[in-house]
Here is the input.
Amino acid sequence: MLVSAVIPLFNKKDFVKRAIESVLEQTLTDFELIVVDDGSTDGSAEAVSGIQDPRITLLKQHNAGVSVARNTGVAKCKGKYVAFLDADDQWRSTFLERTLAVAQSRPGVVAVGTNFQTDTKSKCCENPPYSTVYTDEYLKLSRQYKYSLRLLPSATLVSKKAIILAGLFPPGIKIYEDPDTWMRLSWLGTIAYVPEVLSFFHDQTPGNTMTGKRFVGPDYPIMAKTFRLSLQEGNVPDRLVEDTGIYVRDCVMYQSKVLLQEKRAFCAFTNLWRNRDMAAYGNDCDYERLMLQCLTPKFFHGRLARLSRILKRCFS
Here is the structure.
């Protein structure tokens, strides 16, 4: 068996059957499906038990978060490759066939991502590459596409060996646990990207972590902490240090911008200040300007933007 599908499940009784059906309808039929119930209290596990198919295995654990649930699935699966699907998302029928073919098309591929559709967009990457891309500089390529070309758990197939070597998903992290994992995975080999929309990400599902207030806690974004520790341990290839630093800096800035939009200026500034060492990556003053925006009234922000452009010309 080459492929295992893993669905982490927590209180998605009304949606999990749809997700499972999208797996069972795959054109590639030789797979196993592992559903890891993460302590659901709404009857989700019972809904899964009612689906009769010998390829389905239901595992139950005490609530430990989505990262631990995915890691449990990886530990128990038999496939050489693992594809993740959140319990409220769906795959097109050719998802496994297409991603597996790309993963096996050349040596060194550690992950294959695809374009995906959301509840509000027909495709995430609006102007994707014309053909499948293979890159050893995933973080740089993602930035060139303004992060619309990116990996998403429900649209990604990975090498089981590689994701274990990368350290799996970070336990206890509920938000942005997957970009941290893809960052570490990108240091190990080639990441491929398929431009076709092969996955449906339902970002408006009740309880989705993309809705409501986000980015709270001392470790957000987790990528900054991971990057620092990995640098100390020598786990980041020298040729990828700068691109990784810029990627992490951009994540810190994005999260702080969201906090500003939510009128949480103090949290935004704290996030930037705690990760101020990331400002050293890249060659602009955007990081410093955003810090000033957190400390000044909104009507000063236009002037700060002009000052930032002037400083950029002076120091470039």
